[in-house]
C-alpha cells in the first residue's frame, strides 16, 4: 500500500466483484486476533440478505484495512464494522470508541496526524477511483463511512424482501482472558 501511495500513479487495475459477506468474513478473520491481542473487541455486523451483493473486492478490502489499522493505532476500545444496505448504495461503517481530533476535511490530508499521514489520504484516493465516497461521519465515537454505489444488478431483484428483513449476522470477538 505504501508503494502505491508513493508511486504517484492514480490508476489501479480494475476491481473484481466479491460478495460483501465473504469480504466481511475475511476482514473479521484478519483483524479479530490483532485487536484481541490488545484486549480490544471486534464486532462485524451485516444483514444476511445483503451478503450476496457484489462490491469491488480488492479495493474495498484495502480501504477497510486502512480504516481498521487506523482504529487499531489511533482509536480506543471496541471496534465495529457494519454494513447497511441503502437500496442504491451500500454503507460500510468502521467505528471505534475513540475521539477523532481532526476535522472531517483535514483528517484525509497527507501528512496529517501523528502517524505517516498517508493511510487515510490513500484510502480516500482509492475510494474516489472506485466511484465511491469515504467520509468521517462521527467524531465521538470515531466513525468512518465508506459509501459504495450499487450497480443496476445489485440493487434490483432482491428476493424475499416483501416481509421483514432477516436478523442481522452479529459476531463479537472477545479478547482472551488475561493470565
Give the helices and strands, then pairings:
Blueprint: H1 2-7, E1 17-19, H2 20-36, E2 42-46, E3 54-56, H3 57-74, E4 79-85, E5 89-96, H4 119-129, E6 133-139, E7 142-149, H5 152-155, E8 169-173
Parallel strand pairs: 2-4
Antiparallel strand pairs: 1-3, 2-8, 4-5, 5-7, 6-7
Summarize the structure.
By secondary structure, the protein is of the alpha+beta class.
Write structural notes for this entry.
- The chain has 179 residues and is α+β, with helices and mostly antiparallel strands.
- The protein is 31% helix and 26% strand.
- A six-stranded mixed β-sheet has the order 6-7-5-4-2-8. Strands 1-3 form a two-stranded antiparallel ribbon.
- Helix 3 packs antiparallel against helix 4.
- The protein is globular.
- A hairpin with a 3-residue loop joins strand 4 and strand 5.
Amino acid at each position: 500500500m505504501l508503494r502505491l501511495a508513493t508511486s504517484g500513479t492514480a490508476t489501479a487495475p480494475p476491481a473484481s466483484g466479491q460478495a460483501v459477506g465473504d469480504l466481511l468474513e475475511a476482514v473479521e478473520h484478519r483483524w479479530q486476533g490483532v485487536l484481541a491481542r490488545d484486549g480490544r473487541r471486534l464486532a462485524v455486523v451485516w444483514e444476511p440478505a445483503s451478503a450476496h451483493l457484489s462490491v469491488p473486492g480488492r479495493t474495498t478490502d484495502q480501504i477497510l484495512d486502512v480504516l481498521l489499522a487506523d482504529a487499531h493505532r489511533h482509536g480506543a476500545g471496541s471496534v465495529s464494522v457494519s454494513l447497511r444496505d441503502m437500496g442504491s448504495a451500500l454503507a460500510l461503517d468502521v467505528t471505534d470508541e475513540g475521539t477523532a481530533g481532526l476535522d472531517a476535511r483535514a483528517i484525509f490530508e497527507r501528512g496529517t496526524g501523528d502517524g505517516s499521514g498517508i493511510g487515510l489520504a490513500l484510502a480516500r484516493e482509492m475510494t474516489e477511483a472506485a466511484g465511491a465516497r469515504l467520509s468521517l461521519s462521527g467524531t465521538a465515537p470515531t466513525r468512518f463511512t465508506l459509501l459504495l454505489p450499487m450497480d443496476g444488478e445489485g440493487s434490483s431483484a432482491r428476493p424475499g424482501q416483501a416481509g421483514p428483513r432477516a436478523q442481522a449476522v452479529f459476531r463479537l470477538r472477545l479478547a482472551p482472558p488475561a493470565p
